[in-house]
Structure formats: C-alpha cells, structure tokens
Specification:
The protein is an all-alpha fold and 234 residues long. The protein has eight helices and no strands. It has helices spanning 17-26, 32-49, 59-70, 86-89, 110-121, 125-146, 153-163, 188-233.
C-alpha cells in the first residue's frame, strides 16, 4: 500500500494527485513536440477541473503558470506565454498601511469621529443641527447594538454635548429637518379638480334621480293613454 507520506509533495493540491502524476510524467518526455502536446492536454484537463478560472481574463495564462509551478519551474516547452520565474510567482504582497492613530470612542467607529469633526466645522446653523441630529441617531443605533436596555434621549444629549465640548446640542422630542420640495407641497390644481369631480358626481346623481322620477311619470302617462285608446276601440 502506498501512503501519502511516501509520495511526492503536491505543489498545487487543488488539481489533485492524478494531475500531479501526469505532470511528473511530462518531465520525463524527451521529444519537445510530444511534450508540448501532452502539456496542452494537461491544460485542457485543468480547465475542466477548475471551471471558476474561466471568469478571469486571459485564464489560459493563469493555467500555464500553474503548470510551471507544478513542475517546480523545470518545464521546458514552447508555451504561448513566457515562462514565469519563481520570484515572480512566490512574491509576497506588500503590507497594507493600517492606520496607527489612536481613535477615541472606538465603539462608535471612525466614521462617527469624521462626522463629528465635520459638524463642528460647519458654519451654517441649520446644516450643523442636521449633522447633530444624525450623530444622535447613530449613537442610539450603536447603543442598541451593544445593549438590550432602551436608550434615553437625555443620555444621548449629554454624551454628545460632552464629546463636542458643549458645541452640539441634540434636540429631543421629534426634531425634523424641513426639506422644501414640490412633491411635498399640496397641489392646488388637484384639489380643484377633486372638488369639481365631487360637484359633477353630485349633479349627475341628482340628474339621475330627476330622470328616474320623470321617466316614471312619463311611463304612467303612457299607460293611461294606452288604456284610453283600447277603451275607445272597444
């Protein structure tokens, strides 16, 4: 029985042991044309085993790089792409520049501090109050994520005043930002049209009632005249 400990190391485990054996056999082929033909067959098999790579632009280049990597960069064929180097494939990415600044109120996040600084620097009183209310709403949302108890507006007001050194005052009791927009204004033309429609319906209903009574009276007169005509003929 053959154990994995006695087998060669799989450089690309996602393609499986059988592909690794085919690649090892590929290195033993001496004829360059036959070696290239077998390499292309292995590329087609790798495409079938990893269909998600087709979403990558120029995925064939990626597969050839994997083939070179499975041969430990010892493959010598006339591939349609330049052979990669070990340094190019195994190059480590550069570290990301994480921020080193000490963020206050970490439970609120950096966006809260950025909005707080913008609110303090806003010269327009109305916009400044709008920023203040947005900060208060966000603080209430952050507290509800961490605590199950209800959050009182007075606590938000006091804490926001402390964070802003008394420059921002959170208004409690249903503060609303007034937005002037035509779609929020009443349309007088629509009201007039509705009144006209009501009058028309009322008149139409009255007319129908008059017409019903009139037609009823006309029907009675017609029946009387018909009876007179029958009696006269008799």
């Amino acid at each position: 029985m053959e154990y994995n400990t006695s087998r060669s190391k799989m450089l690309m485990p996602e393609y499986g042991r059988n592909v690794q054996k085919m690649v090892e056999y590929l290195l033993t082929i001496e004829d360059p044309k036959v070696r290239l033909r077998n390499a292309e067959a292995i590329i087609e098999l790798m495409t079938t085993l990893a269909p998600h790579l087709k979403t990558i632009e120029d995925y064939k280049h990626k597969l050839w790089d994997h083939l070179y990597q499975m041969t430990d960069f010892r493959l010598n064929v006339d591939s349609p792409y330049p052979p990669p180097t070990r340094e190019e494939i195994l190059k480590k990415p550069e570290p990301l520049p994480y921020p080193d600044e000490n963020t206050r109120n970490k439970h609120f996040g950096r966006n809260f501090n950025a909005l707080l600084e913008r609110a303090l620097a806003e010269p327009d009183p109305e916009r400044k109050q709008g920023f203040t209310q947005a900060l208060g709403y966000y603080m209430k949302l952050a507290y509800t994520n961490w605590h199950k108890e209800p959050v009182h507006d007075d606590m938000i007001k006091n804490e926001l005043a402390e964070l802003s050194n008394g420059q921002l005052v959170y208004e409690t009791g249903g503060y609303r930002v007034q937005v002037e927009s035509n779609r929020f204004k009443p349309n007088r033309n629509n009201n007039n049209n509705n009144n006209n429609n009501r009058n028309y319906k009322g008149n139409q209903g009255g007319g129908n009632r008059n017409y019903g009574s009139g037609s009823g009276g006309g029907g009675n007169n017609y029946n009387k005249n018909r009876n007179k005509y029958k009696n006269k003929n008799k």
